[in-house]
Design goal:
It is a multi-pass membrane protein. This is ABC transporter permease subunit. Helix 4 crosses helix 8. By secondary structure, the protein is an all-alpha fold. The longest helix is centred in the first third of the chain and has 36 residues. It has a single domain, classed as MetI-like (MetI-like fold, Orthogonal Bundle).
Amino acid sequence: MFATLLKQLSTLVISLLGLTVLTFILSLQSETPVHQFQSDHVVVQYFEYLQFLLNGDWGTSSIHKRSVLKDFLQHFPATIELIVFAMVLAVTAGLGLGILASTRRGGWLDNTLMTSSLVGYSMPIFWWGMLLVLLFSLTLGWTPVAGRIDFAYDIEPYTRFMLIDTLLHHNQYGFAAFLNALHHLILPAVTLSTIPMAIVARMTRSSLLAVLKSEYIRTARSKGISKQRIIWVHALRNALQPILTIGGVQISIIMSGVIITEYIFAWPGIGKWLLEAVSRRDFATIQGGVLALSIIVIAFNLALDFIGIYLNPRLRRPS
């Protein structure tokens, strides 16, 4: 167990070092240096660069003249709120649809769900987002077009998580502000969750079908255990391992998709912030934002590895 955890942590350290080396090389190629180094030696400059990062100096935005790290932390809660909501939606719906399809293997429901998931996986996110806006916002008028909350609500950004901040203002607006913020969150989250939902649904179906052929499942059936208990208690736990394996890929898809989604819905998060930096050639912001997002992806993959080790006892045994 300890050896496995040590291996995962060493992988994390190597990944982070490789990432900092890459961003350091890119910073050297910039016309406007992000940091001023004291030494002329490249190796010494790299260690100075690491010291800058550890001290919270990730550069200064050439447009806003503010610290890149502070700007990132200011926009980050909006992105996390959108990603968490989208991931909960994708995992919940994806698992449910995958389980439903596996229990109706070969039937019309299975074929319909898998065809729909293939369409959802293949759909360009920018086209899908604009289509949802056209249908639900402009045609039906069910959802807002853009933003996080209506201008009628004056919400103090205590945590910068809008759903939490609206609850902190409960005495002033009741639940009206919270419901309005949730109303704004639904359409961007649906747009962002479509591709991961399709992948989770297909992986859940495939993994469950493989597990349901196992000997211990046949033994459980012979004992008269109900079909629902077999799936939810005995089979699903072992079927989750391949789904967790692709979880790292999903967070990468989510991170790339959130940039487009935030731009479409004018969501004031990291994606919109980075796109504005690219359009204005703000190199310090681009470098700092990409570095921070990459660290989040690496940390998320490490967390999924730990969850996989917990769920699979064979991974805890020394090889």
